[in-house]
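In practice, a research group might receive sequence data for several interacting partners and want a quick structural hypothesis before committing to experiments. The following worked case mirrors that situation: the sequences arrive first, and a predicted assembly follows.
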Amino acid sequence: MNDPTNQFHVEERLGALLDGESDNPGADLQWLETDPVARERYRQYEAVRALMRALPEPDMTQDLGHRVLRQIERRKRNRRGWTYALAASGIFVLGVLLFHLMPLPAPDPVAVSPAVVPSGEAPEETLYPAYEEDAWLLMVDALAGFGLSPSLNTLNGLSEELLLLLLAELAFPPESEATNGSLFYHEPSLCGPPAFTDLFDFVDMLNEADAYALNQVLHAALDEA
Amino acid sequence: MTSVEDWALARRAAEGDVDAFARLVRRYQKPVITFCYRMTGSMADAEDIGQETFVNLYRSLHRLRSDSAFSTVLFCYARNATLNHLRASGRRRRKMASFEREPGAVCGPPQPDRNAQAADTAFMLEAAIAALPPAFREVMVLREFQGLDYQGIADIVACPVGTVRSRLARAREHLRRYLAGVYGDRFP
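A structural hypothesis for the assembly, expressed as tokens:
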């Protein structure tokens, strides 16, 4: 048993015999009877096993089931939270994109220089663009109110030409229509803060093909952004 | 409970039956915790790893295949979580460093007070088990504390039966030498 190779073989053989996994238990038992060194080693392995199995079992401080189920439920909630956060982020990005797609209108001389209005005279009703901060918040609210999908689904199909035409018209309304209020212009005294919901009202009126084209263009622009 | 019943519970759990999964946890929490405890030497760590094991299992329920015994699959998860924990804590490296010395100094020839030997046997043996490298310790724990046969252990640790046999032999020999160093000619 002093040869290391043989030594290792002996350890494996004794271990397998101890574990009931010997290939030839009869021969191994006979070997033990004739080899006192191997017999003593085998006895010591049995003692090691007995000591190990006599070790006290660990005491669990609490039922794992409650902890596990609590954590599973927490992860489910977190996943829902991430889903909502992603949806909100998507809406935000889309909103920013819409905001940047709208060209700034030419400033109204009256609106940009209120100081020239003589005191005592009521200033003329001015038009202002809808992409003010309040309008932005309103748009986000409007999206949420629509549950996102109804309005955005209607974006699925506006042709690019029609989109450009639409945007140009929205950004630079004809003089004759400006006072009536286009989709992005209105008279604050009549309508309150400008609302992008008007855009969605408009989009809701589009046919499916046009709405699809609009959506495609918006998504392409979003990807580029 | 048989593996067939376990898999039936697992299928129900995968379909959203939380009570079925709770039954599985209650059924296997003790062997899993015992395995983790023997591997880490810390009850707090063992409970954390056990929890992680069951949570990971729950997330994978829908893609598990019932080709193997449920307990085998479960212990695969427990083993992976435990090894990840050991790697993360750096404990593995320290244990390996102490183990990879010369065989005579594997655990250092201990010189305990003879009067305290009997009372400290369990403590010393646990220390000796903890000093084994994880690859040896896991087969030893699965064999001696879970009572698995060589094939079952090989399925869990993903190695041939011959490797299990040799690792067990080496682990057992190290423990024997450790106790021989403690008790000398008064080996129990």
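Before designing any experiment, note the following. The interface with chain B takes residues 8, 11-12, 14-16, 18-21, 41, 44-45, 47-65, 67-69, 71-72, 75 of chain A (CB under 8 Å). The CA atoms of residues 47 and 189 of chain A lie 95 Å apart.
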